[in-house]
Amino acid sequence: MFPRAWRAIALVASCLIATASSAVTYSPVKPPSYPLAVRSPYLSAWIPGSLVESLPSHNAQFWAGNNLVWSVIARVDGKTYNLFGVASPNDETQSATVTAATYTSTHSTFTVTAGSRQFTLDFFSPVSPKNYVRQSLPFSYLTVTVTAGNSASVQVYTDIDSSWTGQASDSTWSYSTSGKTGVFQIEANGASTYSQNSNGQALWGSAVYATRPSASSTLSTQSGPRVAVRDQFVNNGTLSGNHAAWSSGGVVAFAHDLGTTTSASAVTFAIGHVREESIDFLGEAQTGYYRASYKSTTAAVVHFLDDYSSAKSESTDFDSLIESTGTSSYGSNYSDILALSVRQVYGGIEITIPNDSLDTEYVRAFIKEISSDGNINTVDVIYATFPIFYTLSPDYLKLLLLPVFEYQASDAYTKEYAVHEIGANYPNATGHPADGEEMPIEESGNIIILTYAYEKASGNTDLSDTYSAQLKQFAEYLYENGLYPASQLSLNDALGELANQTNLAVKAAVGLATYGALTDQKNYTTTGREWADKIWTDHLGTDDAGTRFLIQYDTTPWFLVFNHYPDVLFDLDVFPDEAYNATTDFYPTVRETAGVPLDGAIGWGQTNWQSFVAATVTGDTRDLFISDLHAYLSNGLNTAPWSDRYWVEASNGYSAGQSYSFRARPTLGSHFALAALSGANIWSS
User: Which residue range or ranges hold the DUF4964 domain (predicted)?
Assistant: First the structure.
C-alpha cells in the first residue's frame, strides 16, 4: 500500500504541475476579445479572451460572433499538435499548451508549447494612417515562429474554408502562383454585388490566403475535404499538391517544412477579403486605394507580403507611440485602453478611389456603423470617433466628411440641416432614406465641429473653403433652432424624440462658438457663450442650485454632458469653469457599481461619452472615469469585440460590467478624447 500511496501522491502532484503549467500569462490584461485579422468591416476576425486558454480547439470568430475556420497545426519530431482553431481535431493529434497572450495596438501574440518546441502566433493587422496604400490593402498577417531549442524536425500547417465568404454552402476556390508566392482565392457563388449575409459578412468578392517559402522552409499546398487534407499533413508533414474542386466543409491549405533545426524560424501568411467594387457611392463604384498601384488581387497580396518587414518596423514605432501617449496622458491603465481600441477603429473604415478611373485625387473614406444599424458615414459615429483622428490622422476627418458634403450638395438632399448618414446599409452610400433617422441639431453641430477639428489639427482650410455655404447654412440652422430645440432625437437616442433637450442646446451653443472660431466671426462665438450663460447661469438646463445638468429643461433626471468636450478641446471658453467644477463634483455622486450611466433614468453607460466627459473633468473624477473604463475592459465578464455600451448596474439579468447590445464598433476612437488634449496630429510616418 505504501508504494501505491506514493503513486497516488505522484499522480496528484503531476496534475497540479500540469494545471500550473497551463496557466496563461496575459499582458497587459485579458481583454474581452483579441483582434486577429481586423482591417475592414468585412475582414474582422477575433478570438474571445475567455477562449485563449483553449486556443488550439476554438475557432476564430467574425465580429458578429459566427465561426470562421482558420487553423494552425504543427508537427514536432513526427508528433502533431493543434496550435490554433482546430475545433474538430483529426486522430493522432493533441492540443498544444497556451502559455502567454499579449496585445499591442497592432499585434495579438500567443505563445504555445508543442512537444519540445515553443511557437508564437503573431496576428498582425497593420495600422498605417498616413500610408493610404498600406492602410487600404485588405489583408492581415499571421506569422508563426518556432523558437530556438533542442534539435527537432518541424513542419507548420494552416488552412481556411469558405466560412470567410459569408456563404459556406456554395463556393468556388482556385489556386495560383506568382513567383514563389502561392495564392488561394475562395468566392461565394451567385452573390450580388454590395450584398451581405445576416451576420454582416460580404457575399461578393474573394477570401484570400497566401504565403511563400521562407529562407528555411519548403512550401506545399492542397485543397479538398478537411479531414483528408489534414490527415495528409499529420501522416506526412507535407501536402500533396492536389487541388480538388470545392466541396462543402473543404479547406485550402499550406504547409511549410522547416526541416530539422535548433534555431528560430518563422513563416508568414496573408489573409484577406478583396472586393474590387467595394462601395456604391451615389451610383458610382469605389474601390480600394491600393488598386491604383496593384490592380489585381495577386499583385496586391504579393506586395503585401513583400511589405511585411517595413510594415512590422512601422508597427513597432506606432505601438510605442500609442503606449507612451496613453501613459503620459493618464497612466498605464489608459495605455491599455488605447492599445485595444486602435485596430477596432481603423478596422471599421475603408479608403477608396473611383473604380473606373483609379484616380487618387478623388480619395474618400467610408465608415460602417457596425452592429447597431449598419449605416454608412453616420455623422454622429464620425463625431464619436473623431478624437483618434484628431490625435493621429486628421486627414481621415476630411476623407470621411467629403462623401457627406458631396451628398448634401446634390439635388437628392434638400433639408436645411445636416444629414444623419448617407446610406442605411453599408456599403451602399446611395443617400439618406426617406424614413431614416433625423438629428437636426446634433448633426448640424457635429459637421461644424468635425470640420474645425480637421482644420485645427491639420492646418488645412480646404474643407471649410470648399463647403463654406453648407457650413454657414448649418450654423444658421443652429442659431434659429438651437436654444429651444424642437422635439427630436439626440445622440442619446434611447430617450426618443424629446423637446428642449439640454444636451442638444449645449451642442448648439458649442457648435455656434466653433463656427465662430472656424470663420473668425465673433458674433457666433458671442451667441454661443450667451446661450451657455442661459443654460448654466440662468439654470435653463440645470437644477435650481446649479449642481447638475438636466435631460430636459425643467425636468428632474440628470445626464452626462458629453457635448462639452469640443469646448474644452478647442479652448473656446463657451461654458464657465464653474460648470465644469460642478460636473466634476456631481458625477461621483451618481456612479453605479461599474461606472457612471449615460443619464439618471437608465442603468447603462457608453464608453464613448464617458471618455468625452473624462476629458472635461479633473482630479479624482477623471481618475474614476479612467479606472472604471479599464475595469470594464479587464473584468472578464465579456467575450464580444469591445462594446462601447455596458451595464453599470445589475439590470435585466445582466451583471454590472457586462456589455450591452453593441460590439466591434469603430466609435472607440472616443477613447482618445483625453489624449487629444495633449496635442494633435502626433503620428508623423
Answer: 12-86
Number of Cβ within 10 Å of residue 521's Cβ equals: 15
Contact 306, 139 (CB under 8 A): no
C-alpha cell recorded at residue 542: 440645470
Mean pLDDT, the chain, rounded, equals: 95
| pLDDT one-digit tens code per residue, 445-467 | 999 999 999 999 999 999 999 99
> Phi then psi for 553, rounded to 5 degrees?
-55, 135
d(CA 487, CA 507): 15
Q: How far apart are CA 125 and CA 102, in angstroms?
A: 14
DSSP string, 615-678: TT--HHHHHHHHHHHHHHHHSS---SS--SEEESS-BTTBPTT-B-S--S-GGGGGGGHHHHTT
Is there a common fold for 25-312 and 363-676?
no
d(CA 107, CA 242): 34
At 651, give phi and psi (nearest 5°). -165, 145
What is the CATH topology of the domain spanning 25-312? Beta-galactosidase; Chain A, domain 5 (2.70.98)
Report the alpha-carbon distance of residue 257 to residue 267 in Å, rounded. Answer: 10
* Mean pLDDT in residue range 293-318: 98
Q: What is the DSSP letter of 377?
A: S
The ranges assigned to domains in the chain are 25-312, 363-676
Distance CA 643, CA 635 (A): 13
pLDDT tens-digit readout, 647-662: 999 998 999 999 998 9
Task: Write the single-letter amino acid at 15.
Answer: C
Helix/strand/coil for 225: strand
pLDDT at 168: 84
Of the pLDDT bands very low, low, confident and very high (cuts 50, 70, 90), residue 369 is very high
Contact 258, 267 (CB under 8 A): yes
Sign of the Cα pseudo-torsion (174, 140, 681, 607, in order): positive
Provide the whole-model pTM.
Answer: 0.95
Give the residue among 479, 557, 480, 484 at the shortest CA–CA distance from 524: 479
What residues contact 465, with CB distance under 8 A and at least 6 apart? none
SS3 48: strand
Question: pLDDT (tens digit, 9 = 90+) per residue, 258-276?
Answer: 999 899 999 999 999 999 9
For cell 438629428, the residue is 439
- Find where cell 485645427 sits: 456
- Answer yes or no: are the C-beta atoms of 186 and 202 closer than 8 Å: no
The CATH code that applies to domain 363-676 is 1.50.10.10
